[in-house]
Amino acid sequence: MELQGTHIPDKILQNRNKRISEQHLLEEVQEIFDREQIKDDLILKNITEGIETESNSLKFDFLETSKIYHLSDIEKICIDYRLRFLNSSLFKSELPYEAISKIKHLEKIHETKLEGFKIMAPAKLFKLKNADDPLLFAPIGNQYYYLIHSWGKDLHPFRKLMMWPFKNLENFILLLLVVSFFLTTLVPEGMFSQKQTTTEFLVIFLFMFKWIAGLAIYFGFKKGKNFSEAIWRSKFYNA
After folding, report:
1. pLDDT on residue 155
2. Which strands, in side-by-side order, build the sheet including 144-150?
3. 89 CB contacts (<8 Å, ≥6 apart)?
4. Beta partners for 144?
């Protein structure tokens, strides 16, 4: 006669059923879920309301150095990639649950309530007033911020290069000069005289630059655009 093996899941189930009924078990689990949902709602409310604070009380021994950034580090990346670093209350996209989960974990191990959340992301992801990789930060004092979570798709590999002309006025003028020079070389040599001289080339180049710069200034003012150095912490779309 072959003996049957002991099926542990059945034994656990039998022991559980002796201890508590299914109805009471479901009620206990539901109570746990309700408590966790309340915590989630409070964290989400805190993020969407964007309570301002300069620091959070975190335990030094539990901090990861790879997630600590000074405001100057954040500023450089925002300017290079034309991103905004703003209060979480202005963020209009959906916050992933993983971010809330990480906040709950940090609050538990640091025994504190986190406030003053900031988000680094492209301007299109914020609800900006009219005047592709979000990162969620919490302040820890003295202009230092702790990275809690990042999500979404990575930025385009050429975004830094594409945004380089809009970093500051000097870069933008250099771009206009290069474009003007390129367009000047496309002007047929015999268009104004049989043989184009260096002086004529420079005159055409200056007129071309004036034309390109005029268009850039017109559309720049019309759209209310500004350089990355000036807008990385601006709450206004046309700042």
Report:
1. 72
2. 68-70, 144-150, 135-141, 118-121, 84-87
3. 47, 48, 49, 50
4. 70, 141
Q: Is the pLDDT score of 237 beyond 70? A: no
Q: How far is CA 40 from the centre of its chain?
A: 22
Q: Which of 84, 82, 97 is nearest to 47 (CA)?
A: 97
Question: Per-residue pLDDT averaged across 193-218, rounded?
Answer: 81
Contacting residues for 124 by C-beta, under 8 A, at least 6 apart: none
The per-residue b/e assignment along 42-60, b for 16 or more CB within 10 angstroms, e otherwise, is ebeebbeebeeeeebebee
Per-residue pLDDT at 223: 62
- Residues 63-92: pLDDT tens digits? 999 999 999 999 999 989 889 899 998 888
As a whole number of angstroms, the distance between CA 21 and CA 36 comes to: 23
Taking alpha carbons only, the member of 157, 112, 153 closest to residue 135 is 153
Q: How far is CA 191 from CA 183, 212, 224, 227, in A?
A: 14, 20, 37, 37
Share of the chain above pLDDT 90, in %: 25
How far apart are the C-alpha atoms of 71 and 56, rounded to whole Å? 15
Amino acid at 84: R
Residue 84 forms beta bridges with which residues?
Answer: 121
